[in-house]
Amino acid sequence: MNLTVIGYWGGYPKKNAASSGYLLEHKEFKLLIDCGSGVLAKLQNVIQPEELDAVILSHYHPDHNADIGVLQHARLIQGFLGKEQPTLPVYGHTFDQPEFGKLTYKTITKGIAYNPDVPLTVGPFKISFLKTNHPVPCYAMRIEADGKTLVYTADSSFKEEFIEFSRQADVLLCECNFYGNQNGKSAGHMNSIEAGQFAQKAEVKQLILTHLPHYGNLEELMTEASGQFSGIIKLADEFLAISL
User: What pairing do the DSSP bridges indicate for beta strands 120-122 and 125-131?
Assistant: First the structure.
């Protein structure tokens, strides 16, 4: 599996950047995980919108789904220009029916409901879900293919269930919206120390801190997390590429 970070800011995209969006590729299958504000513009530096095979959404906050509409129009326009493409499946939960309904657009995209209690197969990927602690229904994902595992926390404060859910993952893509001296529980987010402790207990191989805050020295997040985690640790960055 190959992971490319497209956007990594929490809440809204910083200037000339993007909020949450991650491209996961395996055996030529291209899966976009979340599609936040600015993601479509940045994605085109890596692949074109019509090259996507599927999209999956953790939840319906705009920093994770705002660019679904422009993705739909990009594929629509490419169709007008003569590029034949199949209907793009966009996977999401059904606990917000108005938002889920927006995932289907003409024959361009089709919203497909995932059942978070049952593993989902998307192309070469097996995806399991864990409900997170967040103000709206949101699901973390454990994505497996050919013996490799990526865990994406999506948005959440820390919960003990994360440890077994992420056990021995090759990469833990962990939200880190707060510094170590801050408590993000009421907002439904983790801080850097919690992320490091979680990664250590889950025995993951590599920790990537993402969904980052817009203020402070981001290097401090990594320093704080590395005080808890003995493995490889990185800050998410635009077009950061990781091979699992």
Answer: antiparallel
